[in-house]
From TrEMBL:
Keywords: Cell membrane, Membrane, Transmembrane, Transmembrane helix, Transport. The chain crosses the membrane at residues 46-71, 91-123, 135-159, 165-184, 214-235, 282-303. Belongs to the binding-protein-dependent transport system permease family. CysTW subfamily. InterPro entries: MetI-like, MetI-like_sf, Phosphate_PstA. GO terms for biological process: phosphate ion transmembrane transport. Residues 97-300 form the ABC transmembrane type-1 domain. It comes from Candidatus Borkfalkia avistercoris. This is Phosphate transport system permease protein PstA. NCBIfam families: 3a0107s02c.
Length: 311
């Protein structure tokens, strides 16, 4: 009887599976679950509210700029703006659009391979304590903070004056490649560092070599960060004015060769805005520029998702 009373008086045991089933994984928590968790920690709750406020203000500013540009530019869009030849009557943006694609493509073609391979060398081959790596990183950070007009003056002195290329799309593309190279290199370097070392160790354990590990395992894992850096660099090229005015020129035509003079969309919009008779066309050019950036970013994200591997 004593054994029976002890058994009846014992509290029912709960299995570990029952306790674990009540735990919601952090990546599946709803906003209400996070609020209930933050109520117990006032400081975390305050930080979360500040982050949400900052995100809301940023999104509101971007949305306001885009909507205001669309409201000002869409009514001024007309077929004459897309004529193949620029005249003072139609102020066509088509030559500037073609020049923008040429300069952006050439600059990325030069900057992305050099920046990616430089980042691979610094992360995968060179030691973190290497003096050369420290110098390269310091130079990249310094170049990232230089104003764009300084790059324009450099391009004008080197390509226009010393090499005697005059104002040319090739000189502008090389100038832009030099300007975005530190951005591509630093973003790629941080993306490669974010790849876990277990990926490398597992690849080496399976017998893969250094190059195979880099190109088959590490680069696909870091592809999203690399694509983000390329998109940022592309946005800087497409929206640049000062550097291209001093290196590529301001002539509103598509040159017959890469050594010819030509303006990009941003320069075209700047030139129209300075003329009081074509302010509406400048807003229309801004709409086309925003649409171009959105299309390029969407294409880059699509390609990045195709190349990215999930583990």
């Amino acid at each position: 009887m004593q054994t029976q009373s002890i058994t009846l008086g014992r509290e029912p045991e709960t299995s570990p599976e029952a306790d674990l089933s009540k735990i919601v994984p952090i990546n599946r928590q709803t906003f209400a679950d996070k609020l209930r968790a933050y109520r117990k920690k006032p400081f975390s709750m305050a930080l979360m509210l500040l982050v949400l406020l900052a995100a809301a203000i940023t999104a509101a500013i971007v949305l306001w700029i885009v909507l205001y540009t669309l409201a000002q530019g869409i009514p001024n869009l007309k077929p004459s703006l897309f004529a193949w030849t620029y005249t003072t009557a139609n102020v066509s943006l088509m030559p500037a659009l073609i020049n923008t694609l040429i300069v952006a493509g050439l600059s990325l073609l030069m900057a992305v391979p050099i920046g990616v391979f430089a980042a691979i060398f610094m992360v995968e081959y060179a030691k973190s304590t290497n003096v050369f790596v420290r110098i390269v990183r310091m130079a990249a950070e310094t170049l990232s903070g230089i104003p764009s007009i300084v790059y324009g003056l450099f391009g004008m002195i080197l390509f226009v004056r010393l090499l005697n290329w005059n104002y040319s799309l090739l000189g502008g593309a090389i100038t832009m490649a030099i300007m975005i190279l530190p951005l591509v290199m630093r973003t790629t370097e941080e993306s490669l560092k974010a790849v876990p070392d277990s990926f490398r160790e597992g690849s080496y354990a399976l017998g893969a070599g250094k190059l195979r590990t880099i190109f088959v395992i590490i680069l696909p894992s870091a592809m999203s960060g690399i694509i983000s850096g390329v998109i940022l660099a592309l946005g800087r090229v497409v929206g640049e004015t000062a550097a291209l005015m001093y290196s590529a020129g301001t002539v509103a035509r598509v040159p017959s060769s890469l050594l010819g003079n030509g303006r990009t969309l941003a320069v075209h919009m700047y030139m129209l805005a300075n003329e009081s008779f074509h302010v509406g066309e400048a807003w229309a050019t801004a709409v086309v520029l925003i649409a171009l950036v959105l299309v390029i970013n969407g294409a880059a994200e699509f390609i990045g998702n195709k190349l990215k591997k999930e583990y």
